[in-house]
Amino acid sequence: MQNLKNYWNKFKYILLLVSILFSPVFTYNSYSDDLQQGNKLILEMIAKAQKHALETIELSSEDRSKKITPLINSYINLDFMAKATTGSFWKKATDDQKTKYKLALLHQIVNTIEDHLNTLATMTYKPLSSELRGKKLIYVRGVIEDRKKNNPPINLLWKLSKGKDETFGILDLEIEGISLVRSHKSEAISILRKNKGDFNYLIEKLKIKK
Amino acid sequence: MKMSYPLSYKILILIIILSGCSNNSITVSENMDPFERMNRQVFSFNKKVDERIISPISSTYEKEIPASTRKAIRNHIDWLDTPNTILNSSLQIDFKNTILASAKFMLNGLTLGFYDLDKGETAIKKRDFGSTLAKYNVPEGPFLMVPFIGPKTSRAFTGTILNTNIMSNISSSPLNDLRLMEVPLDTIDTRSKLSKTIDNIYESPDPYIKLRSFYIQNRRNIVYGKKYINLKDKETDAEFEKLLE
């Protein structure tokens, strides 16, 4: 009986040692899975956007925007972007204003992408690297290159995070180091400050002028 | 080399004085804009000039001139600007960039810079007097909107003035004449290259703020490189993590 107890105690220590030794491997595997998923998401989105650009080349800018909106919306974390671009003013907005603002912001993002769709269709995307940042963020770096080499390559950085449903969403995109969320935030905060935090005025201003 | 000693001494003294009494801490904030009211007026003026004169010419240029010719013109303009990079790289004690830029300048000089014989293999960091002033700890200063020129920080604007004065003193006169003649071409070519971005800025709710944000982020990336990028990423990560909680 005493022998059995000794064996059990030894086995417990071995089990503990093995779990300590292998835990970084499991964590690393989960990190590496996240990085792969992040990369895959960006590649998939670019391929879909390029396909969309070629298929809709003869449509008007307005129709093109309408068609690409669901695609963009499925890849970005719009709730996060809305909060990030309005800072402390977000808490003061009503639910109706929040919904309207999110819609207006989505249209702004779609409009920016629509402006560059033809360029995107003629370029090649190459993933460069991906990196875990803190507990929640993933950075995916890539470059788009002109196939005919008439234009210099453009560096892109996607900032992603996993949502509660375990799917990834895009939080921000930096083009040659220029953050879209940061520039949208500068604009939104400046408009809100000058108009005593009036969200309705900001929503009105966000309506696209084309 | 025609640079007169008094001028070079003046610049050196200016750099020493400015570096001695300055605090060049890198910041991520974009709010250094005490002249916003005046800047907005200049922005409206520049926008009108752009919409009525520069934009129509640049769209014709883009439509009528083939992409390969436009690329040759861009190469030539960049080549003409290389002495500026060579001088400023040496002032910033970046010898690698000085040597690479000098070699590339001489090599591409065989085609007057119209064709990149190096085929983009040598990566050269563009340097100007604004980045040299930053290297010597001159603070960035307030944001300015300059008539006809566009957005600048006051340090970058000082750099542009120094650039015009110094380069015209040390370069040969045919090169100066060529550079002066090519200012309109540079403007048209840059406008056509950035046409989508500029149109997108004009369509935004506050074009002035958007342009300021784009310019400041881009300029700091060029001037400070990794130092600024790391600081910005660290700040953004903390902000994003908090919002995701």
What topology does this entry show?
The complex is a heterodimer of chains A (210) and B (245).
Chain A: H1 2-55, H2 61-75, H3 78-86, H4 95-115, H5 117-121, E1 123-133, E2 137-146, E3 154-162, E4 168-175, E5 178-179, H6 180-194, H7 199-206
Antiparallel strand pairs in A: 1-2, 2-3, 3-4, 4-5
Helix pairs in contact in A: 1-2, 2-4, 3-4, 3-6, 4-7
Chain B: H1 5-20, H2 36-64, H3 67-91, H4 95-109, H5 129-135, E1 143-146, E2 150-153, H6 154-170, H7 173-181, H8 183-193, H9 195-203, H10 207-224, H11 226-244
Antiparallel strand pairs in B: 1-2
Notable traits:
heterodimer; A: 210 residues; alpha+beta; Nuclear Transport Factor 2, Chain: A; five-stranded antiparallel beta sheet; 7 helices; 5 strands; extended; B: 245 residues; mainly alpha; two-stranded antiparallel ribbon
Describe, in plain words, how this protein is organized in 3D.
The complex is a heterodimer of chains A (210) and B (245). Chain A is α+β, with helices and mostly antiparallel strands. In chain A, 60% of the residues lie in helices and 19% in strands. Chain A contains 7 helices and 5 strands, in the order H-H-H-H-H-E-E-E-E-E-H-H. Chain A has helices at 2-55, 61-75, 78-86, 95-115, 117-121, 180-194, 199-206; strands at 123-133, 137-146, 154-162, 168-175, 178-179. In chain A, strands 1-2-3-4-5 form a 5-stranded antiparallel β-sheet. The longest helix of chain A has 54 residues, at 2-55. By secondary structure, chain B is mostly helical. Chain B is built from 11 helices and 2 strands, in the order H-H-H-H-H-E-E-H-H-H-H-H-H. Chain B has helices spanning 5-20, 36-64, 67-91, 95-109, 129-135, 154-170, 173-181, 183-193, 195-203, 207-224, 226-244, and strands at residues 143-146, 150-153. In chain B, a hairpin with a 3-residue loop joins strand 1 (143-146) and strand 2. In chain B, helix 2 (36-64) crosses helix 8 and helix 9 (195-203) packs across helix 10 (207-224). The model of chain B has no long low-confidence stretch (mean pLDDT 86). Classes of the chains: A alpha+beta (210), B mainly alpha (245). The A-B interface holds A 80, 83-84, 108, 111-112, 115-116, 119, 133-137, 139, 148-152, 159, 161, 171-172, 176-179, 182-183, 186-188, 190-191, 202, 205-206, 208-210 and B 30, 67-68, 70-71, 120, 193, 196, 199-200, 202-206, 209-210, 212-214, 217-218, 221, 229, 232-233, 236-237, 239-241, 243-244.
